[in-house]
Amino acid sequence: MSLLPPDAVEFIGFVAPHRVSEIHPAPGEAIEPDYLRLLAQAHEWGGFDRVLVAFYATAPDALLLAAQVASVTERIGLMIAHRTGFTAPTVAARQFATLDRLTGGRVAIHAISGGDDRELARDGDHLTKDVRYARTGEFLDVLRLSWTSDRPFDYAGDHYRIEGGFSEVKPVDAIPVYFGGASPAALAVAGRHADTYALWGETQAQVRELIGRVRAAATAHGRAPRFSLSVRPILAETEERAWARAEAILARTRQVRAAAGLGPAAAPQNEGSRRLLAAAAAGARLDKRLYTAIAAETGASGSSTALVGTPEQVAEALLDYHDLGVRTFLIRGFDPLEDAIQYGRELLPAFRDLLARRDGKARAA
């Protein structure tokens, strides 16, 4: 898999090594191989283009999980979250290039700098957020040099000094770099490095505004990134039942948090969560079918807003974001395996059919 054409639509799912979500407490085992296999294969069978393998402090290693996903699938791409700065960029470059070669070019990297000082401290990282983003920029500089340079290179930055760096193993093609972050420090890195800029499920007005800022930052470097939207579809056969399911998920989320002894969510440190909470403050139901109540309940710790309705209605809502410039949709459910199967059977075909019919009308006109 190489870099996608600007207008190509991409669907990315989410795989975890065990069943867990806001409504499903984590089991005792950190890794359940059979569940990981089923979840990965459900996405491949459902027609997803990639799956995200997430990173967070205390989690199993994302690169090794991605290798396992590749071993039980045939074609689906891997979007591997990588916390920049913990592994030397030359070493990380060889790791990603090696896996890309072994999987026939299925690898992408989601470069994350970390937005919560408390989580970073668990791995002994105490840099400020702005400094972490500056380090990420240098990390990605070295990563690309390692992947592309046909001779040893030197690099001198504030965080990395490389002398005679070189990688014998190169990717099959250019490894796509996904990147998110809405602070000024993050946008400076996004403009230089993001092949696809990742947004969470914000309102249409918020998405329009942030896309404009990212495009301005990228234009300064002669670049034109793609845009991704991360959202949690809640589907049912009727709109009424879909909203009832959404309210049931909210109630179950509250039960799980109470059973775990979790009080009100702490104020987030990252700009993305703050933007989701700003949307939630405007109402629980926004635009056509954006549902923000679960984000408000959890402190917007990650992708936590939903699109609610029938598959056709949610497909129409995704098309509204497509009209704003979004071409990648990162979707996952609150019932991870069951929802992935339903998305593959109903939502992805509904969106693709809707887009094809609209494009056909435009060509005819």
Automatic annotation (TrEMBL):
<keyword id="KW-0285">Flavoprotein</keyword>
<feature type="domain" description="Luciferase-like">
    <location>
        <begin position="13"/>
        <end position="327"/>
    </location>
</feature>
<dbReference type="InterPro" id="IPR050172">
    <property type="entry name" value="SsuD_RutA_monooxygenase"/>
</dbReference>
<dbReference type="Pfam" id="PF00296">
    <property type="entry name" value="Bac_luciferase"/>
</dbReference>
<protein>
    <submittedName>
        <fullName>Methanesulfonate monooxygenase</fullName>
    </submittedName>
</protein>
<keyword id="KW-0503">Monooxygenase</keyword>
<dbReference type="InterPro" id="IPR036661">
    <property type="entry name" value="Luciferase-like_sf"/>
</dbReference>
<keyword id="KW-0560">Oxidoreductase</keyword>
<dbReference type="GO" id="GO:0004497">
    <property type="term" value="F:monooxygenase activity"/>
</dbReference>
<dbReference type="InterPro" id="IPR011251">
    <property type="entry name" value="Luciferase-like_dom"/>
</dbReference>
<keyword id="KW-0288">FMN</keyword>
